[in-house]
Amino acid sequence: MNKFQKISFRSFGDFYDFLPPEEQELVDFLRDIILESEPDLSEKLAYNVPFYYYHRRICYIWPSAIPWGGLEPGSGVALGFTKGRQLAGDYLSGGNGKDVRYRLFRQVQEIDPLLVRSLVREAIELDR
Fold it and tell me: Is 112 strand, coil or helix?
């Protein structure tokens, strides 16, 4: 824990239990899509949110309930890609870093599972 992160989760379960129900639903849906996209991905908490790794970090799920992510509280859940700027299309629009791009979701119905799987696979190819 540091001065920016006043909370420290020991596990995904601790992280998940901290979230409001509407964000839990979004996290569940996105997590399932990501993990089903590639069985060799690993999930680890970094900055107290789940990041997904192939060789390196490829994507993450950042709920707005986690305050140090810069998202407006109650604004939804972001699916971010560490090399998002290099991915095809304009589906990912948020992000203020050099490469990171994300998409913010408020409802499960906004998520296109086929497109998310495609982005995950493309991110894995960039990581190879």
Answer: coil
Contact call for residues 77 and 71 (beta carbons, < 8 A): no
Q: Which domain does 119 fall in, by range?
A: 12-127
Residue-wise pLDDT for 15-40, tens only, equals 999 999 999 999 999 999 999 999 89
pLDDT band of 55, cuts 50, 70, 90? very high
Residue 4 lies in a domain: no
Residue 105 lies in a domain: yes
91 φ, ψ (degrees, to nearest 5): -65, -35
- Total number of domains constituting the chain: 1
Q: Examine residue 3 and state whether it is found in any structural domain, yes or no.
A: no
The three-state (H, E, C) secondary structure of 29-52, written as one string = HHHHHHHHHCCCCEEEEECCEEEE
In a domain, 19, yes or no: yes
What is the value of pTM for the model shown?
A: 0.92
